[in-house]
Structures are given as structure tokens and as C-alpha cells.
Prior knowledge:
3 domains, mainly beta, 0% helix, Ribosomal Protein L9, domain 2, 9-stranded parallel sheet
Amino acid sequence: LTQTNNNATIAGNKGSDTFNISGYATGLNTGTYSEILSVSSSALTNYNVTINNGSLVIGKATLTISAVADTKTYDGTRTSNVVPTFTGLVSADTGKLTGLAQAFDSVNVNGVNGSILSVSNYSLNSNNYNVITHTATGTINQLAEVTYTGVSGGNWSDPANWGSGSTAGAIPTLNNVATVIIPSGKTVIYNKDQPNSLTTTSNVSNNGTIKFVTTIDLDYSGIISGGSVFKQGSGIFKLSSKYNKIDFINFSENFTINSSCSNNDCGTYGNISGTGNLTIINGGIFLGNIYLTGNLTLGKNDGTSLENQLITFGTRNYPNIVTVTGDINAYASLNLASTITSGRDQTYNAPITLIRDTVITSTNGSITFKNTIDSDDPKDTKYFKADAYVDLNLEGKIGSINPLWSMDAE
């Protein structure tokens, strides 16, 4: 940049003496540059001339870099493949601005335009600019599915154990993935105490085993279909989806199934074994065999209509076995095709319907029936036996709706 000074002034000249003044300054980058003045006149020898030079000040230009709206499918990263735009760069400096990149502020699915994109990188080989950056809104869509690809016994929280190709590293957390696939023969450890173990709401197509290990409370709300579920640790663990269909459950400490819904097909649970207390809140579910070192609670004692809490044990063709070392407290209505044995007291507060011959035994406690006991079909009467070590209390009607074939009370 060259500046020519046409506005210099002169003072102290006498009479008709005239002077010619010229001045200029040059500079390229930001900074202050001295201006050189020169004076000429035929009368110049009659004067002592003092020249006060001015200066040229070059200020910084404004360079604006703006993130651009982007939409992608969840991949576990903040990466955006769109390049930011810019304005205000002098054409001579085009090659000095490199490495432009932008990124999402979060890896997670946050709805349409729920994410923020920011300028994440640039290199400017010039000090002649004040740089201003602008954000944009973006969208990360939910990934349809991701497969566990790690070794058996690997951690859910390790991104390296998930996906391949475009889905590699897409760890299923929060609502970022719709369906998780666990292959046959694989066990994945869901450790809530580890980093990256954000609670997921993904549905799981489980052909292997999920082992939940946690010392803090965990409520898993996704639907688990098939396979085995293990639970270890002192944290309160709850399955709260309405439509789980799990083949096998094994747990230590305590385990809760809270899968109530408005119909009677709200989940199926195969064999359940554990050391600790098992609580099944509300109903609409089907249960297989239960082997429990602890107490069993069926339904909830909070004023909810007992008839609206229905739990089915076994089927007409496949009766089940329930063995509990502690107490059994049932607040839900029960469909029974069962052999039920407890080490201590059993209390049944809601109606019982027999779908197959059923035997209920307490080896070291009392059994109390506070409601009705009936067959499910008047044309298919059932055998029912209740055997209590201490007391047997029958407080409701028996066979008042559909009769039983025979009942033994001991």
C-alpha cells in the first residue's frame, strides 16, 4: 500500500514566497509506517526549514469464517464433512488460509437442527486479519442398527467394539442407535461405572449375552429380545420396557422387572435365577421357571387395581417351577400352571386362576390366600394343592366362578 500526502500544510512563509510540498509512505502488512515529506521553493535558502513527517497506519482487516449447516447419521464422532465458508480475505492472501474444518458440538442425536456446528480448525499464515467465526445448526440422525464386533467379554463402553465400515466406533449410547445386535456366542459387558457408559435406550436383538455390571442404579428401558441377561453389582437394576422377550436371566443382589402395559402381552421372561430379591411390578407378562435365593414380590401394593395386574406362570402345555428360599408376596392377579415352593411365608392378595394343575408349598412358613381361586375353564377343572408348614389361611372363595376338580389343603 502506498499513501501520497496531498494535505500537508506550511507555516511561517513570508510575503509572496511559495513552496511545493510532496510526501508518501508505503507499507504491506498491518503496522505504522513513516511518511517522507519533501519541500521545494526558489526562496528555500531564505528559511530554516523544519519538516514534521506524518505516518501511515494499516489496520487489520476482518475475516469472517462461518460454519455451514450439515446433516449426518450418528457415527460416534463430532466430525462434519462440510467445509466452512469465509469472507473478507484479500485475493493476494488466498493461499494463506488452509485447513478449514467444522465439527458438531456433540456426538449425540438431538433432533432436527438440535445440534450446533462450530469452526473447529483453520490455519491463517497472516497477522493482517481479525478473525470472526460464526456457528450453524445441524442435525444428527439416529443410526438404524449397530453390531457388537468385539471379543466375547468386551466392554459396551469401548467404541472399538462396535460396528464396521461406516458404523465403526458408533457406540450405542442414549437414543443414538435404534437397534443393537449381539451375535451368537458373544458376551458384552455393560458396566455403568465406566466412562462412556451413558445409559442407552436402544432395543437389543440379543443372540448372545448381556452382562450388566453396576454399583449405581440403572434403568434399562430398551426392548431386549432373546438371549441371556446377567446382572452383577449392588446397584438397583430395572428392566422397564413393556415388550422384553428374554430367554434367561441370572442376577446377584436385587432385580426389578417393571414392564406394565395396557394389555396382557407385555413381555416374556424364560428361566430366572438369582441371589437377592426379585420384584415384578405390575403385570401383563409371562414367566418361566424361577429359582431364587431371596424374596419374590409380584405386583405393587399401592392401591392399583389388583385385577389389572396379571402375571402368568407357565402355560397349559409347559408348566413352570418356582423355588424361592424367602417370602412370596403377590399383589397381582396370577395365572398359574405351576409348582411353587418357598422357604417362608406366601401371601396371595389378588385372584388366582389355574390354567393347569398347581401345587403350592411352604417348607417353613404359612400360606395365605386373600382372594378367589378358580379354574380358567369350567369344562376343564383343575387340581390344586396348598401345603403349609405352619398355617394355611383360606380367606377367599374357591371355585366360585369356575369349579376346581379337587383341592388338597394341608
